[in-house]
């Protein structure tokens, strides 16, 4: 299919209105335009929500096990198109092909998990305090979900929303990141081909301002019952505030400043492997990317020496090859990373590469794979001597930079890990179960790894964070069902008379004064 010219899709038809165009460019080859996208406006978003509202009731009437078979078909279609979709991910956002294949596999895993949940949307039968009365609980769809996603995981993260939302009987308005428009359209086409009816999934291409305005209009018209947002903490706070004004709860999956504690008994080579992948994979452009290594004073120097050597030796460049990371996702992230490089201070020891900043002929990277001038490639930065109070310590960096600091006691390590106020992911490298469990108890992260990286989600575990990383909502596994269903209770009195709870309840009088 032709993905070179795109527009919003509402009720399975291209939306003709236009608020301008966006050019989605291959960040590893800036002369390669992947798609020209006709952007919608706030009214486009509202029309999509109206379409979803009209379609949702019919979709909810489809028995949940049948909706589960549609989810199964999504998984099989993605599996059959895995390589083509992976190649598109790599071309449009510059993610190394091995990671892109892993991302597409995550959609398949998510579908495999949820296809059976259509038969397990259980409620409960509850005993009543009254005779001849029965109580029940049911999971019911929330209605219409507006899903707004980032582009660093352009298909995996959307699948965490779309698959359970559709399974539970909701209709969805999906607004993907502009710089991942072609990948989003390809995934949406697979969902539609799996049998999702017209209007049940609408795809809106729009910029951030138009999306926010459209969401405000849709909430005011009571067209949207749930909002899912993946993106920055700053924008997530605004989305949450908007939802609160309309008495709606948002599922917010936001940024991270994810710590890794290296204990004195850690396997340092293993810790280096974990730090390398979680700190620099996807060029550090993951919400779960490693932010700061907190190394015990006894092993700090040796860890830094090994970590520096590993970063310098890592292959960087053309994402179609075997590289640790490729380009920045888009020019906006390159510009932001330039700002972050301004946070490097005189007390930081700069390691990890032969230069800092954009890789080019005047600022080369040893062993670079491909032509650095073709794309948005940046040197990896390893900063030793990072301190609390440094911007690079306290703020999400979203780029190939990792800081290192030290600690002497576990309480100090936990305090440093929690200090930035994010709470998404954390890791500890240790061979002492006591250290592992004490760290887990005290760290504020929603996800904790022991002897593993800060990155790496599985489709059947809850994913999400606390504090600046989110509002406690969780995606993936059975836990996400609480985002896309609401509990409904029913009482059925077949006594033939009005029985009033707490007033007409039978009592049995005990003899509480009895003593042996």
UniProtKB/TrEMBL annotation:
Keywords: NAD, Oxidoreductase. It comes from Pseudonocardia eucalypti. Its EC number is 1.2.1.3. It comes from the Bacteria. InterPro entries: Ald_DH/histidinol_DH (IPR016161), Ald_DH_C (IPR016163), Ald_DH_CS_GLU (IPR029510), Ald_DH_N (IPR016162), Aldehyde_DH_dom (IPR015590), ALDH7A1-like (IPR044638). Belongs to the aldehyde dehydrogenase family. The active site is at residue 253. This is aldehyde dehydrogenase (NAD(+)). Residues 18-489 form the Aldehyde dehydrogenase domain. Homotetramer.
């Amino acid at each position: 299919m032709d993905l070179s010219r795109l527009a919003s899709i509402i009720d399975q038809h291209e939306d003709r209105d236009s608020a301008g165009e966006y050019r989605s460019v291959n960040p590893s080859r800036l002369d390669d335009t992947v798609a020209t996208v006709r952007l919608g406006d706030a009214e486009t978003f509202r029309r999509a929500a109206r379409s979803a509202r009209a379609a949702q009731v019919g979709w909810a009437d489809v028995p949940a096990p049948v909706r589960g078979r549609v989810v199964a078909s999504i998984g099989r279609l993605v599996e059959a198109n895995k390589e083509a979709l992976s190649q598109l991910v790599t071309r449009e956002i510059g993610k190394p092909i091995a990671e892109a294949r892993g991302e597409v596999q995550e959609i398949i895993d998510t579908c495999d998990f949820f296809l059976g949940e259509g038969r397990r949307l259980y409620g409960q039968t509850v005993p009543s305090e009254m005779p001849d009365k029965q109580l029940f609980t049911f999971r019911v769809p929330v209605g219409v979900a507006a899903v707004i996603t980032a582009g660093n995981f352009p298909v995996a993260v959307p699948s965490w929303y779309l698959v359970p939302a559709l399974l539970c009987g909701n209709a969805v308005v999906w607004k993907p990141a502009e710089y991942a428009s072609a990948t989003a359209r390809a995934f949406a086409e697979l969902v539609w081909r799996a049998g999702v009816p017209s209007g049940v999934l609408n795809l809106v291409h729009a910029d951030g301002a138009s999306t926010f305005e459209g969401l405000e209009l849709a909430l005011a018209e009571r067209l949207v019952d749930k909002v899912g947002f993946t993106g920055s903490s700053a924008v997530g706070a605004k989305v949450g505030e908007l939802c609160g004004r309309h008495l709606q709860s948002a599922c917010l999956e936001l940024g991270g400043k994810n710590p890794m504690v290296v204990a004195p008994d850690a396997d340092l080579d293993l810790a280096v492997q974990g730090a390398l992948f979680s700190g620099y994979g996807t060029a550090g452009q993951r919400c779960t990317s490693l932010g700061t290594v907190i190394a015990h004073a006894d092993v700090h120097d040796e860890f830094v020496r090994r970590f520096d050597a590993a970063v310098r030796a890592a292959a960087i460049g053309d994402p179609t090859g075997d590289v640790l990371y490729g380009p920045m996702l888009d020019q906006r992230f390159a510009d932001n990373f330039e700002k972050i490089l301004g946070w490097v201070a005189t007390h930081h020891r700069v390691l990890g590469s032969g230069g800092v900043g954009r890789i080019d002929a005047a600022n080369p990277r040893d062993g670079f794979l491909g032509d650095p001038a073709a794309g948005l490639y940046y040197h990896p930065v390893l900063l030793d001597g990072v301190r609390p109070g440094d911007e690079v310590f306290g703020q999400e960096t979203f780029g190939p930079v990792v800081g290192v600091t030290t600690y002497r006691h576990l309480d100090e390590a936990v305090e440093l890990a929690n200090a930035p106020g994010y709470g998404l992911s954390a890791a500890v490298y240790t061979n002492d179960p006591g250290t592992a469990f004490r760290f887990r108890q005290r760290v504020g992260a929603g996800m904790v790894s022991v002897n593993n990286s800060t990155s790496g989600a599985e489709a059947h575990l809850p994913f999400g964070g606390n504090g600046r990383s989110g509002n406690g909502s969780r995606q993936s596994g059975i836990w996400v069902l609480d985002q896309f269903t609401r509990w409904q209770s029913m009482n059925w009195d077949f006594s033939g008379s009005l029985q009033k709870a707490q007033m007409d309840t039978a009592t049995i009088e005990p003899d509480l004064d009895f003593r042996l």
